[in-house]
Design brief:
The complex is a heterodimer of chains A (about 350) and B (about 575). Helices cover about 65% and strands about 0% of the residues of chain A. In chain A, helix 1 packs antiparallel against helix 5, helix 6 runs antiparallel to helix 8 and helix 6 runs antiparallel to helix 10. Chain A contains ten helices and one strand, in the order ααβαααααααα. The chains are: A mainly alpha (about 350), B alpha+beta (about 575). The structure holds protoporphyrin IX containing FE.
Chain lengths: ~350, ~575
Amino acid sequence: MTPLAAAANENLAEISNYLIYSSMAVYTLAFFAHIAEWTFGSRSKVARTAAALTGTADAAAPAVQVRGKGGATAVLDRPRVTTRSGAGTRDVPDGPGAAGGTAQGDLYGRIAVSLTALAFLVEAAGVVTRALSVERAPWGNMYEFSITFSTVAVGTYLVLLALKKNVRWLGLILVTTVLLDLGIAVTWLYTDSDQLVPALHSYWLWIHVSTAIFCGAVFYLGAAGAVLYLFRDSYEAKLAGGGTPGRIASSVLERLPSAASLDKFSYRINAAVFPLWTFTIIAGAIWAGDAWGRYWGWDPKEVWSFVTWVAYASYLHARATAGWKGRKAAYLALFAFACWIWNYYGVNILLSGKHSYAGV
Amino acid sequence: MSTTDKAATETPPEPSPADPSEVAAGSQLSTAPVEDSGPVGIGVLGWARWFWRQLTSMRVALILLFLLSLGAIPGSLVPQTDVDALKVAEWKREHSSYVGLAEALQLFDVYSSVWFSAIYLLLFVSLIGCIVPRAWQFVGQLRGRPPGAPKRLDRLPAHTTWRTDRTPEEVLSYARTLLAGKRFRTEAGSGTVAAEKGYLREAGNLLFHVALIVMLVAFAWGQYFKSEGGKLVLRGSGFSNTLTQYDDFKPGTLFHPDDLPPFSFTLDRFDATYEMSGPQRGTPRDFKAYVTLTEGAHGTPQKREIQVNEPLEIDGSKVYLLGHGYAPVISVTDSTGKVVYRDAVPVLPQDGNLTSTGAVKVTDGYKDKDGKAEQLGFTAVFVPTFAGEGKGTMFSQFPALLNPQLMLNAWHGSLGVDSGLPQNVYRLETSKMEMFKDESGQQLIKRLAPGGTMDLPNGAGTVKFEGIERWATFSVTQQPGSGLALAGAIAAIAGLAGSLFIQRRRIWVRAVEGKDGVTVVEMAGLGRSESARLPEELADLAATLHQQAPSVSDPVEETPGGERG
Ligand code: HEM
């Protein structure tokens, strides 16, 4: 590298740092906007869930009208489809979202989403400039891994929003954890931008590591869904049993989607990335075969990828096994995600292995 | 198994369907084994059958899967003999009080331990026991027809209805064409059409589980027939692929030495580059070994390169570049001035900057002043970049040869190499040796720059640090079955995608003439519980059918939402 190019690269690396810090500032604003959304929004239709569960309201409430190409006015041109939950599940409508159907809450919510989108762009620019500064994929160490990870998680969330999926309830949790992730990255994991050790010189880096990051980010969304499902499920169970949940709990939980929707969200996300996670492990094995002469050697990183994989497979099986659906399956999903996180932080920092980027 | 028993009782009670046609409608949407905690038969056979049914049930598969993930964990926390035997020894020293327990639990060989093997073998027996009947059942389903419509379509998860002035026959024939056009398998009933789609889901699921078995077989095959050998090669020297040439060799249990393909190579050059400045100064950037390769016994030599991620492939074997280091060239002359030893002595790196240690062993040819044959030994510490005079450290500051220095420590006596015990070539066994002492009675120790010499006391000879050679270590591996494993892996992903992304679903259309002579059309869909797209698909199908059988403009009955019961 010529000195001139090196200087340019150092500049870029610095710009990247500024961008990451700026994105943290914007995420913080988004965080406050979400807090405002939750505070000023209210649960509008009080006790919809309770009503649905105890049968005091029109039980036909969830008669869902499923999309019409020309908008909802096309009713007369199209037959209406009514849906009905399967046997044994509670028939509960989804909560109205954080804004609770109030205009003010909704305004803050929109501001929060816009800020999140802005922060995402800034953060993504930070990742890209980092990549330019090192002239390689920006996945050489844990700092780079962490900033890419949160970028992908937020990006996936924004894509789901853009596809008009009901995911805005994820906003606050996501922004909070992204701030946590970035905070850890800039304070403890920061590494000056540099070249890679020879073991990482391979196009498999692009394939294996990018899919690993993507899977982690999406698994994270699934895990967040599972956690909220557990809360919401106890809430519904309490209501169904005639109990009265605490005021704050009911204010927050009432606005979330129904337990069944959260459960489905979590399942779909996890199921959708499971094949990709399988692919990631296989790509890693192929790379290991090229780099170390064996495709599988029970290196700690490999062990924990395997554990994570089997844990997610258990989760998918649990969903298909009577008696394991619902809460137990959700615990398995969380166990599986905990394995993923441990594989990232724990194994890199506490256990030494052949994965050389593991050096923080 | 209290948890599973509890699980069974916690299953939400199925509301008893009013009608057997409803049960039939949902039957065989999947070939998942049915949970059964049914009565145990009598006698050994009954128990065997019960055991087999348990083993191949989904619940036990789930528990085994979970155990497998838990069972893999200890192997990442406790060092494994297969991965790093030195670390195992170190661990044993540090946790001496647990060694007995750890050995009893086979914690140093988790992945070949009895208990770990038991888990995965049971899992795979369960898998096979699960797959075979399912595949059989699936073949039956492929030949079967979609089940007839349940009596009450409005009890299904997605339902729609409208009234039209087309005749029922017209509607049903439109519906059948429409569904068949969307690649549904259709079946006409009386006043109804039944349709089903998504058989590939089950096929994908079976493919995935079969692929898992294939991968396990490939893995086992690789374990039994593999071979893995290591060899340190000095620049300018060669290696030929026979058992005796290896420094260490780990064969699989069924490996035969004749399986080693004949080839040889010499190491012509080795290049290493390092980061020269910045915070990561000294981090390696590039390693490259240039070799001359001869394939077969009498092949023509050809120039090849080996890099870290780019092994050399020869006839089923792969040659990997693993590590590298230095070899100080040392010569020893006896008291008469005769050179009795001259060799490049590889020293082993101890840290990232290649501070290296080793031993020089002069086994024969040396005679002391009195003409008595004796052996000489030197412990050596080599640093490619010396910190500088007076810095008080013999740790290298940089991995490249910026200021190489060699520190030698001299002994004489018996090296103990004839004792028949295996000896570490990098360590001096000093129990039968004596130190050379300098004038002040201290141990003779000297730091040399290339070209420097050390005189042994009382004219016992001289040692010269002549120069520096390089070496590289290579690992030669054979891993049969990896092609099969890869094929299995690809099939597994394809199968998974089919199994997770394709929905198996059924659609029924019923058209009957109402009392007023107007036809009532009903459509309903049933899928697996996860199917979110089902209502959308039903809506699309209904919209298309609706174009051909439009509603009569009779507002009275247009309240399908209220019909739920
Ligand atoms: C290494 C072991 C195994 C792995 C990694 C594995 C993985 C999977 C995955 C990822 C699915 C897809 C889940 C879904 O469709 O939602 C699945 C489905 C299934 N697995 Fe396994 N499996 C394993 C062993 C077994 C065993 C031992 C059995 C039999 C007892 C079994 C029976 C099934 C069945 C019946 C399904 C389909 C469930 C349904 O149709 O709903 N699997 N498996």
